[in-house]
Design goal:
With 141 residues, this protein is mainly beta. The protein has one helix and nine strands; from the N terminus they run αβββββββββ. A five-stranded mixed β-sheet has the order 1-2-4-7-6, with no helix packed on it. A four-stranded mixed β-sheet has the order 3-9-8-5, with no helix packed on it.
Length: 141
């Protein structure tokens, strides 16, 4: 996964493309990565029906924190695979506290808009604000 992210960053820097509109993606709002469109954190990602959006967020479930996603109702986006799967960084056997990345894919099912809200929190800490919140606005044409 690090190779894909590094390759994406290298291509983006070398071509001077923007994360929103006007890139080599034909104006969808983000660069395609392995057939997926990378979601634009805090911005807008534009997709055509049938395209898949990927979201990857740093995580470390050994601390008790996990990402949750809200606002996927409405049928504009449907869950793909993987959906909320954490991939832990390579580490020595028995090592604890190793972070990773949690991955989601969303399929653009029908035209419309959706706002995905991801919260990073411990399930048992009810009433406590999340440690992090990330928002993705998606427009499907």
């Amino acid at each position: 996964m690090k190779i894909i992210a590094a390759s994406f960053l290298t291509v983006a820097l070398l071509t001077g493309c923007s994360a929103v509109g006007g890139g080599r993606d034909g104006g969808t709002g983000a660069m395609p990565v392995n057939g997926d469109v990378e979601g634009v954190k805090g911005g807008e990602t534009r997709l055509n029906v049938g395209q898949t959006m990927a979201v990857a967020l740093d995580s470390n479930s050994t601390t008790g924190y996990q990402w949750q996603v809200f606002d996927i109702e409405g049928g504009v986006l449907t869950p793909g695979t993987p959906f909320g799967e954490e991939i832990v960084e390579p580490h020595a056997p028995g090592m604890v506290g190793v972070g990773g990345t949690t991955h989601w894919r969303f399929v653009a099912a029908r035209p419309g808009t959706a706002t995905l809200t991801f919260t990073y929190r411990r399930a048992w800490e009810q009433g406590t604000p999340p440690a992090r919140t990330e928002t993705y606005r998606v427009l499907v044409r």
